Amino acid sequence: MDTARPNSRSVDLSITGEGGDMTLVEVIEIARSSEAKRRIYLCILLSTFALMLAVSAADFSGFGISSKPHEFVDFDDFHIAGQLVWRGEIEKAYRFATMGEFQKAISGVEVFLPWTYPPQFDLLVAPLALLPLGLAYALFTSGGLIAYLLTLRRIAAENFVPALILVCPAILITIKCGQNGFLTGTLIGLTCLGFRAGSPWAGLPLGLMIIKPHLAVGFALYTLVNRRWGAALVAAVTVTATSALATFLLGPSVWTALLDGAKEARVFLEHGFYPLFRMISIYAVVRSLELSALVATIAQLLVAIFALGLIVLASMRLSICQALGVTTFASLLISPYAYDYDLPIAGIGLGLLLPDLTRLGTQLERLALYAMCLFTSAFGLMELAILSDSVKVVGQDMHLALAGISLVAVFALTWRMLVRANAYHAQSNGRTASCAQAAPQLMG
């Protein structure tokens, strides 16, 4: 009897394939159990990523196959910011009025991509400005993608391909816009590897997450709750050292500019100027329903408290890999400024948790989990395809944002499965096994 998967139910959601009808659950999980299928799926996924990367690089280089002009996207913003660093004018990037002029001069149209990155990221994009746009994009995006895939593979092992399938749409959209989701996903993955190994050097990639600090809040809490003082010290030194370097190279005024840019961004968010349908936060969901910014802020605060609370509980009740997986998902729920291109971080969480979730969940639970993961990852991409040119950039209509709801549902269902299984085994004087790669290390 499979006591780890009680009340298993059959779900007839079939896909006709080479071996007959397969459920969605079987399509995902066969990549874990069958090495032959795993290789086939991996080849298809990597070929798709490579094709998207090649097409996008050609587009950035001016050799796109489309008759339409190159669409100004996030990486174009990175390239402009890098140029402003070399010109000693990076403060202008943090003022929408001046940054908008640079964007319009290149794109020929009004663009809404405010610059709110910490000065450390300014230093990171500066070398990219020394290269032609297409080459800079290719190096930044392909390098980030390779690093992310290697990190995810090390974390997920035989669950590498299933995790990759579940975040595939988010990977494609990250490739298309040249965002930094692969970089942050890699840093979070390295942080998890460091914590899993008990190394204080987990604080190094965690400290480097200063480039997107709102996505590292959950791991900062995890570090403190679990008393990882060595990692906390390394992270603090990393943040301090990189801040000092940025101040020395860019000047102290860059911090004032950052604060002013953050204030502008808050106003833009309140007025719905950001593409809410691309966001994965509860704030975006509530605002897209045309409720007030105050109501959306309260909803976001409640979800953030809920997520942070479960990080604390996971640290006390679950194994180290399970707690890290919970922390990874929780980190995406804390800030209203979370986008679909940040979802490679969710792939890290899936890599940590799939060994347990595939073993502990009923078929219905796993079906719901996989479907919601795919929906969360693909929602922004689907809306982009549907809305296309009808999406306005500034002062847009508030197109419905649903990914935040499904992400919360994924988080809640994951928590339910893990806690239920741990409670069951605790009654039997046992504990749920940890990741396939490491022995259980129960937190006090």
Structure in a nutshell:
Mean pLDDT is 87; it is low at 1-20, 390-397, 430-434 and 436-444.
Which percent band covers the strand fraction? under 5%
Low-confidence region ranges: 1-20, 390-397, 430-434, 436-444
Please give the count of helices. Answer: 19
**What's the count of strands?**
2
Structure in words:
The structure is a single chain. The protein is mainly α. It has one domain. Helix content is 66%, strand content 2%. It contains 19 helices and two strands. The chain has helices spanning 24-33, 35-61, 74-86, 96-107, 119-125, 133-156, 160-166, 168-177, 181-197, 203-208, 217-225, 229-250, 253-270, 282-288, 293-317, 320-331, 344-360, 363-387, 403-427; strands spanning 14-17, 20-23. The protein has a two-stranded antiparallel ribbon. Helix 2 packs parallel to helix 8, helix 16 packs antiparallel against helix 19 and helix 18 (363-387) packs antiparallel against helix 19. It is globular and about 60 Å long.
What is the topology?
Blueprint: E1 14-17, E2 20-23, H1 24-33, H2 35-61, H3 74-86, H4 96-107, H5 119-125, H6 133-156, H7 160-166, H8 168-177, H9 181-197, H10 203-208, H11 217-225, H12 229-250, H13 253-270, H14 282-288, H15 293-317, H16 320-331, H17 344-360, H18 363-387, H19 403-427
